[in-house]
Every structure is written in structure tokens, then in C-alpha cells.
Amino acid sequence: MTRSKIKKIQRFDFLTCLESLVLRWNLIAKIENLNSLTKLTHLELYDNLIEKVENLDCLVNLKTLDLSYNLIKKIEGLETLTQLETLYILHNKLTKVEGLETLTELRYLDIGD
């Protein structure tokens, strides 16, 4: 659902086997309604209006997360993503990076500007 002018992540309760979700180039301001997507391994929220990393704790199987080109000021809320291997969070408003110590499977991290 790329370039669809989506403003809010709707509930995906019926897609419990979904492994990849791409919501690039939209107008999403908040990460929400992902609780039922426990099998998700790939999430792209690239180029939206997200200010805070939140509501990802249920995505325990997530391996790739792309939050690039948003308005995020602080990396937080990733502690439960222990399977995360790749994190893209470049071109944000980052002033603080913390909470990465639990990401022991992380192989690639891009926080550049």
C-alpha cells in the first residue's frame, strides 16, 4: 500500500499469517493496530509522518524494520524485537539513541542523515 495517502494503520486482525507489510510514502503519523500480526518479519513504514516508535512489542518475529524518512526524535520501544536483524532509521530528527542493547541479532543498522 505504497503512495496511497493512508493516514492511519487500520486493524489487520484477519491477516494473522501476514509476514511482510509495506506502507511506504503515506501520511501515517502513529504506529498502531499491529497487535494481531505476530508472524510479521518485515515492516516498512518509510517516508511517513511518524514521530514516535511505539506499539511494536507484539512483533516478536520482526527481522527487518524500516522507519526511514519520518519525524522520529528518539530511538526507543524496540526492546522486545529481539529477532530484529536489520534496522533502517535514517533521515529522521534523531537526538537520542537508546535501547539497542537487547537487539542481539541486529546485523545492519543505518541511522545516518
Tell me the layout of helices and strands.
Layout: E1 20-22, E2 42-44, E3 64-66, E4 74-75, E5 86-88, E6 96-97, E7 108-110
Parallel strand pairs: 1-2, 2-3, 3-5, 4-6, 5-7
Textual characterization of the structure:
0% of the residues lie in helices and 17% in strands. It has 113 residues and is mostly beta strands. It has a single domain (1-113), classed as Alpha-Beta Horseshoe (Leucine-rich repeat, LRR (right-handed beta-alpha superhelix)). Strands 1-2-3-5-7 form a five-stranded parallel β-sheet, with no helix packed on it. It has a two-stranded parallel ribbon with strand order 4-6. The chain is globular and about 35 Å long. The two termini are 25 Å apart.
Question: At the third CATH level, what is the topology name?
Answer: Leucine-rich repeat, LRR (right-handed beta-alpha superhelix)
Structural class, by secondary structure, is: mainly beta
| CATH architect. name | Alpha-Beta Horseshoe
Enumerate how many helices there are, as a single number.
Answer: 0
Features:
113 residues; Leucine-rich repeat, LRR (right-handed beta-alpha superhelix); five-stranded parallel beta sheet
Outline of the structure:
With 113 residues, this protein is mainly beta. It has a single domain, classed as Alpha-Beta Horseshoe (Leucine-rich repeat, LRR (right-handed beta-alpha superhelix)), CATH 3.80.10. It contains no helices and 7 strands.
